[in-house]
Amino acid sequence: MRSKQVVGEAALLAAVSICLAGIYNLMAPKERSLAWIGHYSAGDLQPQAATPEASASSPTAGGSKYLRTIAPPKDPGLPYLEVAGDVAQRLQAAGALIIDARIAIWERDADEKIGALQKEAIPFEQVMVVYCSGGDCEDSKILSEKLGMTGFYNIYVYKEGFPDWERRGLPVHRGNTP
To answer: I need a surface site. Which of 125, 152, 153, 172 has the fewest CB within 10 A?
Structure first.
């Protein structure tokens, strides 16, 4: 008898939780809400060719609607999503902001550099790909969490990092200016 009561209360609690989560999801802004089952189109998962709009060099191009549609779906509750090299390459080609998080570059003035992103009026919806040295390197994850705490939310961590980028023969710029 007692077990039936516990099961009934657990089922009621689960049903109320699901209803409240659904209501919250319906009220959340589109970029922060989760897609319902069956609402992801096949185009969200397939590489697409870059459009002239997405290849513009302005910082706001990375936050363009086109770029956000080719970015993989990300849980808005997470600060970042880890992606593989092919996804990082597709996002870069479409105009995402690529950020090097290797510790030697960021250790002295990470807060100043994040502040510079805000001063450049880069929108919080800007799609960013953050990378470091790959492997066991945690620098890209640490920086992504800081960016998330600052308000940016379309952050993707390129988990294989710089060594994989070079191995793929993709463009590399060395120096102090982007």
So the answer is: 172
Residues near 48 by beta carbon (within 8 Å), at least 6 away in sequence:
70, 90, 94
For the domain 41-167, what is the CATH code? Answer: 3.40.250.10
Do the Cβ atoms of 106 and 138 come closer than 8 Å? no
- Domain residue ranges of the chain, discontinuous segments joined by +: 1-30, 41-167
The pLDDT of residue 100: 84
pTM, entire model: 0.59
Hey, what are 28's tokens?
């959340």
